Amino acid sequence: MNEKGYSLVVTLLIITIFLLLGLTIMSVAIYQARFTEVRVEDIESFHEATKAIEETIAEMKVRIDDFELSTPGKLDMQLNTLIPDLQQRYSVEIKDVTGDYNINRATLFTRVYLISKPYGSKTVERRVILTNTPSFLKYAIGSTKDVILNGGAYIDGNIYAGGNAYVTNVANYIDNSKKYMEQTSFPTTSKTSVLFVNGSYYSCDHENGARTCYNIADNYFQRLVANYSNDVRFQSQAPSIQKEREEFIDVDFEWTVKDKLLNAAGIETFSQEYETYIDKSISQLFHELQDRFAVFDSVSSLQENIDSTNQSIILQSEDSPLFFLDQGELDLQEKWLIVNGDLFLGNSVDKSTKVRGNIIVLGNLTISGDIELDSTIYVFGRLDSPNVPGRTLIYNANIAGWDDKEVVLLSKGRLEIARINEFENNFSQTPNLKGYFYTESNATVYAVGSYINIEGGLFARGDTSSTAPDFDVSGLVINAYRGQVDRPNRLSFTQSNDIEQSRFVILYDKDKSVFINRGEGLPFVKKLSLVVDKLIVK
């Protein structure tokens, strides 16, 4: 009996265990099925919410194309009709957060919105900036003509080539007035970078000891076009490549400088008085409006003079056409500074220079030394030499932002960036040029002996009547070595494929703060566009 009872207990125990196992498996299966169902519903809801936001933005882009850009007040009236319609049509929330960024609605056409839609217990959201600023500010580097990337640059941001794009693994450079080529790596981009090419794209693999990609002749680096193939090669990480579908909104440089001169004189854009002046030349405007400015002939006591007047400032002197801002702090307090002559921005031996405010240089600009800027600067050229556009030279300089802001620098003539942290081999990841640098002309950048690290953007509009300095193309040319460079007698190279040893680095500001920080200083264009941030899930 004991044995039979024992067997019965064991049998019941085994049955119970199998029953429990079965129930457990069934529960897990039901849970997994339910989890999968919830997950599918969650994904579907997410995609529906995302689609609604994308469709809202797409229609907003189309609708603002029809807006008449007359006054900021008229813009708000048009938006007050558009926004409720979009909210109802796509069941999204559109929150106007312009006031959070201290944007003056009475004088600026910039508006900031958060477009959001809930899904499940979460919300998907996207910030959009409505602005009337030119397109070059949306890209890390670019040109409306050709873009040529020679060597191992690192680019975190989008690239715009209105013409063709060329990529090689050779860095060209000039040493003691002689031209040389040095093999290095191909460039590298971030995973999120996009190369927008409206023309074609090409690459060339430079071979050791052979001039495969370039020939040096007639004092130019000339492309050996037959050796270029119809592809684009990058080292380690490449951008996605596509056509730019959005209209490129260009800068009308002369019109913009006239617009800023009138604003500096206290004349509101699109006002009746504005219309009587805007068709005149810059020289006529400058002379006719001088009595609306405070005029000084020296930078000494300039801050005190700024503090004592409500007018914008003109600096001009019959004795010298060159002004030095090279020590201390200069705060223009929302006034404009018009320099009728050449301007040097630098620092003395014991004092750095900090400038806040917007500047028009009717001459050439040179920047050297340690500078902190919170400014928009236009370099137009001398009024007595209307056919000679203003040149900008940035050499042996470190440009930081004053209070974490930036500079937007637009030069009508050549932009030259040279001898930045020369033979620096520590490769600090701290930017040494913070801002957006634009030239109406062509540009060539050499980062072979230099180490250039830009937080912002670099854009050469391009001019087909000439070529980029030392090259046979119009647009923007960047030459960048990757590795260590020293100079015992002549340059010596230690090549590396390490991205962190790229001697030209550019990081686009993903917060897009330039559209908000620069306010009235940014170039004014007669067309609205949307700048869209990445999607955020909360």
Structure description:
- About 20% of the residues lie in helices and about 35% in strands.
- The chain has about 550 residues and is of the alpha/beta class.
- The strands form six sheets. The protein has a 19-stranded parallel beta sheet that branches. Strands 1, 2, 3, 34 and 35 form a five-stranded antiparallel beta sheet that branches. The protein has a five-stranded parallel beta sheet with strand order 13-8-5-30-28, with no helix packed on it.
- Amount of beta strand: 35-45%
Task: Sketch the major β-sheet.
Answer: 19 strands, parallel
Q: State the helical fraction.
A: 10-25%
Over all CA atoms, what is the radius of gyration? 29 Å
What would the principal axes of the Cα set say about the shape? globular
**Poorly predicted tracts of residues:** none
Helix/strand class: alpha/beta
List how many beta strands DSSP finds: 35
On the 0-100 scale, what is the average pLDDT? Answer: 91
Termini separation (Å)?
68 Å
- Count of alpha/pi helices: 7
Fill in the keyword field for this structure.
538 residues, 22% helix, alpha/beta, 7 helices, 35% strand
